Amino acid sequence: MHHSIVLSGTQIAANRCTSCCKLYHCPLCPGFKPAKLNRIQSHLKVHISNAISFEDKKICKCSLNCRTAAHFHCPVCHKTVLKRSDMEGHLNGCRGKVVQTPSPATESTSDPNVPPSTPAPLDLSTEQASFSIQQSPNTSPPPTFPKTEVSVSPVVSPQHQHTNPISSVDTASQVDNSLLLQKKKTKCPHCNLLLYKKNISKHIQRKHAKKCKDVTIEDHLKSICVDSINGISAVQKSRHGFSVPVHVQNKTWGHLHKVQCELEECRQYHSLAARSGLSFSHCEHIRSLQYCTETVKEEKLQENVLEEMVQLQFFGEAKKATCLKRQKTARAKHVPLCVPVAFQETPKQLCFSVYEPALTHYTRLGRIMVTYSTSDNTWHCPCAKARLSCIHKNISKWHLFQTNRDLFKTQTDNSSTPQQQQDTVYPPQNESLRQFVQYIYHHKKLPAILPDDLLKPKAATDFMSELHPAEKICTVCSGSIHLEKSSRITGKAKIVTMNGVIGNVSTFFRRCPQCHMVYRYQEWKDGLHNFDDHLLLSLELFVSTTQPAEQCLHVEGGQFTGKP
pTM for the complete prediction? Predict the structure, then answer.
């Protein structure tokens, strides 16, 4: 019998260590720190209190090297079981084996004069309950017999035939239970773990499911080429949310081929794949480049713009000279100095890929990513702290000041008039507001009679989530003056219909670069009425709320009388 099984009323023996120390070790927990006798005795009492009671024994949990995890030893069949609940069920099955199996001494005894050995005690209530199952209603109750004759006699006399139904019922129930458990359980095809069939799908999903998705034409990371000479592209770092793009090189022409990603975890992955003989295995950033079809155009930065920034005190003459020197170096290498990287139409974070000739841990491919937050008006570069300037931030400011000067708010900029400064803000004001309202009144006014198809109920999926103005050419200026790119007013607008409210709708406006005329979404042909850019009404709801008011008012002589 294993030493984790003790008789009830006794304690586990604790012996003093004679090899490594003079203290006492726990005989069941190898990881328990050696301690004095009183500490070990209190620890062993915990083992006894948490043990499983089986007949006259206590089965303690064993943490020795019998198995890799803590387990229980069965005193009957010497099997090991991990969980306590499974061990209790196992003991219920083994309990019948103790009662039914005759002892070797009894089997070897052939002389009837030799008294049989005393068997293990049998629960009378269980015996009576088992016997009552086999009783027939038409027969008289059988006589009672001593327990010794029921359990141990190998040769059954005719008067003792009522003991066979008891053992046959117990054996049949055990066989049925084992077959039922086999039907309910199955093995995992990956780790051969025995589980219930209802839990196998959840086990495979949690333990063996792929953590990363395959790169396909429908699901891949967005990318754009920023340096076509060296085959360097900017790729999204992750699929969800905003993340600073990473530089990836995929140059498969010329004498020297280079395929690499600047992320440290991807480089470790490629190194492990090469040592394993899987040099063709690449990270998802490199695999997404096969769907890259766009190359960003470089904006040639002008020196006069840089001089204007010096006059506006963005930076001094020394930083100006450094920027010009870096520009000459980029031209000599035939690489773009600074290019924008935009994967969204109206991003809150503007990213710029800037050329850096010195190779460091943050510029492994000769380029560095600089980000600008339009909401916080902050710059970030990996080579400098948040509030410290660097050459990469200065070059990015130079590029942004030349391409989108409206993002810079300076007090010394007197080149534009107050009227022009007001025109950059939505909603328009003063004269621009008057033109804006007149255009909506003359060109976007709801007709007196609406088509019937616009008043029919629509599903929520029939409405667009992004509402852009239909105008693309200015209607005020002479000639074909194209409007600027759409700018978002809000991304939390709501469409109210007869069936409910549709949220998270984006509304946009466009502006004429010449006359500063502003256009917003006001298309009643889509079945919507734009109330204030934040609330839009379906025409079905709009007509149902305005018709009762029109029916209650009567016009006489050009005035409302209020009479029906």
Answer: 0.41
